[in-house]
């Protein structure tokens, strides 16, 4: 029997506090897929560094096991608490940002969020997406262009938002009309899109699960600033998943999921123009929100 | 509106790849409990460092979300897949080691494992804990002493092990007798304990869940070397949770959960002594396993 260090080799066979990450990391050395091997070895390194830095107690470890178990248990077809956890720890935003580093003047991306779970219904330019009649009407418009300012004719503009009570349609089946505040628009030959909706409102992420308990225990609020989601796609261009944020919204500097980027913030304006109000199908004066998007070429 | 960096302060308000850990860490600055604040801030730091080092893709992130969700879903009253995950990543062993740094000659600890989920039945010295008649009989004995060699009279010696098929009783309800291979003994006035069991065998941890899939994907085996679990407690002394490992067992240098410490390995001997066999209640010759334990004073 030889349970001592392998003669002359760098990695001891047996676990020790000092060499924990090397010993455990070495157990993944035979992973056939090189990327998975890298992911697991690095995970072990950072996880062990964390446990050592804070000298995690056994009670804290047991609490973490319970928390993760509970988080898994509350997930179902329309609720993903692990994504919510990733969101409030800034991991979703970090992954999003790393994978979509914006180039030049192209529109920055932000988190998809957990509510793009149904397809948005195709609608004609100018249609309203507000089916429940709640909230302050607003004309949303913009233009999709490429890097040289060329219009992206026929770009698909997929939008969704929470209603005036702070809930997405899928969170309130039977209460909100189906596909309320969702729409898929096709930009015109000049790359323009416009539709009617409501002025977005800030709202809290779900707080009735383990993530809500974590926010409460850490005295963090659960609010996201007012925003409208976009996914814009067009042949020959990179798709962009983003939001437009309302400039004077509460929580703009403390989004619970860290989604705000300064380049994505726009003012909602009140326009007093009878002719335009009639065109838009809104009472005068009316609110407007303008968000132009620039796509990168694929 | 001011969504730029707070004038003069070190932490920007808004998320960026460069400052992600600082921005998210700052969101926990108001945590009332100082220890929880430390735990969350350090967690964010290490988690973000991991994501940045490997430049986690969105597909990999989604796989991680699915894996964690699945891991939570398979947990139930007798199965704890998150503990198993912690075990195979060496985190359980690291937490155990940090919290029970052995001093001087005291017996080293190792992982509790997920199978101490029922109370061991009190038994008299010399009793057998093997109720299913399977395996090679073995006399297990030892002595519990304090740091100066003084006997720890009346020490409680709680033991449990897998059966000869590699399963604990709680994994096979209705197949194994209840409380098979579990016992709670009380050391005599000289600190000695002895009981009959079977020679421990190596066995695999459960592989029919997400952790098994992880081991398969990384070409890691699922085996633990042969061992017998101990928890020894006595008034005035620190309790110790540990195993004795069998010296010639396969997987001694590659325990799937990293539990082996060199100081915990013992030979199983074959003894040819008719008088002692009769005393032990075993056929001659018989196997023996001796494991003396030294407790630290509380």
Structural notes for this entry:
Chain A has two domains: 20-56, no CATH class; 86-294, Protocatechuate 3,4-Dioxygenase, subunit A (Sandwich). Chain A is an alpha/beta fold and 298 residues long. Chain A has helices at residues 20-26, 34-54, 58-73, 81-88, 91-99, 210-217, 274-280, and strands at residues 137-145, 156-160, 182-186, 192-198, 203-204, 223-224, 227-233, 240-246, 265-266, 268-271, 286-290, 293-294. In chain A, strand 7 and strand 8 form a beta hairpin. In chain A, strands 1, 4, 10, 11 and 12 form a five-stranded mixed β-sheet that branches. In chain A, strands 3-2-7-8-9 form a five-stranded mixed β-sheet, with no helix packed on it. The first copy, chain A, contains seven helices and twelve strands. Chains A, B: It holds the Pfam family Dioxygenase_N. Chains A, B: Keywords: Dioxygenase, Iron, Metal-binding, Oxidoreductase.
Descriptive labels:
Protocatechuate 3,4-Dioxygenase, subunit A; dioxygenase (chains A, B); 2 domains; elongated; homodimer; Intradiol_RC_Dioxygenase (chains A, B); five-stranded mixed sheet; 12 strands; catechol 1,2-dioxygenase activity (chains A, B); 298 residues; alpha/beta; iron (chains A, B); Catechol_dOase_N (chains A, B)
Q: What is the class of the largest domain in chain A in the CATH system?
A: Mainly Beta
Largest interface: A-B, 81 and 82 residues
The succession of helices and strands of chain A, N to C, reads HHHHHEEEEEHEEEEEHEE
Number of helices of chain A: 7
Are there runs of chain A of 5+ residues with pLDDT below 50, and where?
A: 1-9
Total strand segments of chain A: 12
Overall geometric form of chain A: elongated
Instruction: Return the CATH topology of the largest domain in chain A.
Output: Protocatechuate 3,4-Dioxygenase, subunit A
Regarding quaternary structure, what we see is homodimer
The separation of the N and C termini of chain A measures: 60 Å
Helix-and-strand structural type of chain A: alpha/beta
- Helix content range of the residues of chain A, please? 25-40%
The Cα radius of gyration of chain A reads 24 Å
Percent of residues in β-strands of chain A? 15-25%
Report the CATH superfamily of the largest domain in chain A: Aromatic compound dioxygenase
Please state the second-level CATH architecture of the largest domain in chain A.
Sandwich
Number of domains of chain A: 2
Mean pLDDT reading of chain A: 93
The biggest sheet of chain A, with number of strands, parallel, antiparallel or mixed sense and barrel status, is: 5 strands, mixed
